[in-house]
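quick one, two chains, predict together pls
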Amino acid sequence: MTDPTLLVLASLADGDKHGYAIMTDVREFAGVDMGPGTLYGAITRLENKGFIKALSAQDRRRPYRLTPLGRQHLKDQLSALEPVLQAGSRRLRHS
Amino acid sequence: MNIITRVILRLYPRRWRQRYETEIEDVIAQSGPNWRVLADVLRSAVVMRFREARSVPAFTLTAVATLAIAIGANVMIFTVVNAVLLKPLPFPAPHELVGVWHVAPGFVRGPLNQAAFTYFTYRDEATSFEDIGLWSRASAVVIGRGNPEELPALNVTDGTLSLLRVRPVAGRAFTAADDVPGSRDTVMISHDYWLRAFQGSPNAVGQSLTVDGRAREVIGVLPPRFRFLQHTPALVLPLRLNREQTQIGLFRYQGVARLKPGVSIEQAHADLARLIPGMPDRFPIPSGFSREMYDAFRMAPEIHPWREDLAGDVSRMLWIVFGAVGLLLLVACANVANLYLIRGESRRQELAIRIALGASRQRVAGQLLCESIILAVAGGAVGLMFASAALDVLRAVEPGRLPLLDDATIDPYAMGFALVLSVCAGAIFSVLPIRRFTRPVLAQSLKENGRGTSDGRERHRVRTILVASQVAIALVLLIGSALMLRTFAAIRGVEPGYVDGGSLLTMRLTIAESTVSDPAAAALLHEQIAGRVAGIGGVRSVGLSSSVTMDGANRRDPVFAEGLIGEDGNMPPVRRMKWISPSYFTTMGIPVVAGRDYAWDDVHNRRPYAIISETLAREVYGSALNAVGRRIRASPTSPWREIIGVTGNEHDDGPAAGTTPIVYWPFLQENHAPNRVTVEWTLVYVMRTSRLGDPTLLNELQQAVWSVNPSLPISRVETVQDVYDRVTAQTSFTMLALLVSSGVTLLLGVVGIYGVIGYVVVQRRREVGIRMALGAGTPEVMRMFLVWGSSTVVAGLVAGVIAATAASRAIAGMLFGVAAIDPVTYLTAIAIVGAIAGLAIWVPARSATRIPPISALL
């Protein structure tokens, strides 16, 4: 699962983070090396859709926060993935 | 890497950059910028631009992009041309400022500098100048304010700054009293240095600054951003020429003067010319020289606007590049005109209905003109962004010897130029559509019910001319760039005289005369430092010289050869001179072809020896071997010096300039100047090392120097290859600019040809369908288009060859190792343009053969 928008949403689910913190967090929990271009492409799309919002900048860094709409979207996406994960795992076990 | 990052970030949409640029820069910096990161950012920028562009109609996008490239290229070159060649110098009444030089064809080729005796004469007697000043570039070591450092300096006579009307922001300017030898030592400092070294304190004026080991009183602070031609000195020192000791000779300074109001350059020229014959009556001629020798110089003044001393020899190159991008704009206009014609076809009915309903033709023409100009202005706006990004790239690659590149910015002049260019381009490419779509015959369009018909003769002719012009222009530019490419290759093929300049590191080191006053002691100090530097790990060898190959240092004097040259009372030709240490040749990789190199023993015992280059040896003595053991000297009164060695040649004036006859003296000498021991206080240390790029090396060098004397700074650390690249940068820049222009022109040309042929195919669809229904085969249909296309391309190639032949005169002076009309280059360029244009014809012609006959009925 390497959809950058989903990874960013998942990263922000446990609290506000700025760009570089999101990158390192994603690398830790998903093992995905996301470049700055990809990250900010995803951030732009998520902000436009109202799923995240930028907080006031600290120095050159600006933290982002998950909005209620974004939290709901993340839940929906994960719920949609749930049956796929379960079915995939079950079938692998029985194969 | 930082520059590349900034350039890539500029590709993002402006609004996005305003919002995210700081953040993404921060993330890139924290990620440690590398190629993977940059590739990711580049991909994201392109995707974002693509998404943005998808909503714009294809026609608009293509036209705007085409114009943006062409206008952007023109604006970029304009900013450079404006900064270097057009913008007035930043001094009041700049048109009155003139550079004052001489020519002396009996003494030296090219321009000759000013000397103290000419200066005093002109200042006393010339009636055409408000004032005249002499100046020379220098560097000076400052100690006592942090680490010792070597700063760029300017030596000026007392009137120089006042004639430029430069007013200090604090303190005072030089007066005649400051310029008198033996008076109190004074210095003016730049605004930047004032802020840095004195924290902008108003008390700086009056304080003492130790410059070259001598305490000087700071008397004034120069205005912010003070620049003297392309130089930005941190210190300005009085030149202090000594009138009592002045003799005829020593042309060491540059001159600048302000003409009195209303005086022309011709009048000033005549004014100075009348003073030259009388100079030997005012000042003594040095012993060994004669009045006849002076007259044989045939010295004359050479006065020109001071701005020309700034632009130097880059002006021709810039105009050529400007011409090339101008041609690119013409091709772009032709392309957009084509696009417009094609698009206009779909609007014929609309326009015809408007005219039929009573709209005047002028009104419709006005509408078309307006649309074209709006389109062109949009292209110009995007072009400005291209130009801004391209200037960043240009600055990053630093085409050396392009003075004032930092002044080349997108300023109101550039914006105005872009606007004018856009309006003109819009007007040019709207001419054809206006002519075509506002004619009375348009009324017939109403009857055609939108069905495409075969084209008329005139439309056909217009397209033929457009395509042929594009081919011709593409060929001219390709030939120009191919000639520059071959020049570049030929220059790169010239052995500069040394071996592997990339592993030769140089640094400048000055021992201030006031720190170590004894020349012999200074020579020992240089040897000691050279020894310490040679002891640094990875440094294989060290040599010292007053200048390295092609660094622009141009010290020259006449060379007298015993029994051969200069003993008949005639002035011998002047030759390049360098002062060196032992091991200089070994370090540089310059072979000693006869005799031997200097030993330290020769230097310290001040033995009267000389080494000369092979070119000089052959010229004077017939061969290198014949030269060894013979004797030369630099003036009729100095002692003869024995030639102990002959070395391989250096191309000291640049690779394209031939080998330079050089005399290499030991850097410590007796009686080179009358009755004195002289040493080179400033020397370039050349090191052959395997540790280039090692960040700790510089520190180790500084420590090695400081371990001998802690008050000595090092400066101008660069490789010999850097020097070479700077010298050849003009050629590289011209080649690159012409290559890019011709590449883009060729691309636009191909797109244009492809578009026209494709359009003709669509227009003649019915005709093709009917022909095929009547039994015409693929070859016949192909021939229909290929014959027209090929004849048009051939006509374009012929026109291109004629134009290129005429234009080749413009770049003939910049070529090296290739003739301006070189058959191989011409044939290759013709083959390339012909092949690409042929392909652009063949592909759409081929598609015509797939038209089903039934389409004739549709």
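Chain A touches chain B through 17 residues (CB under 8 Å).
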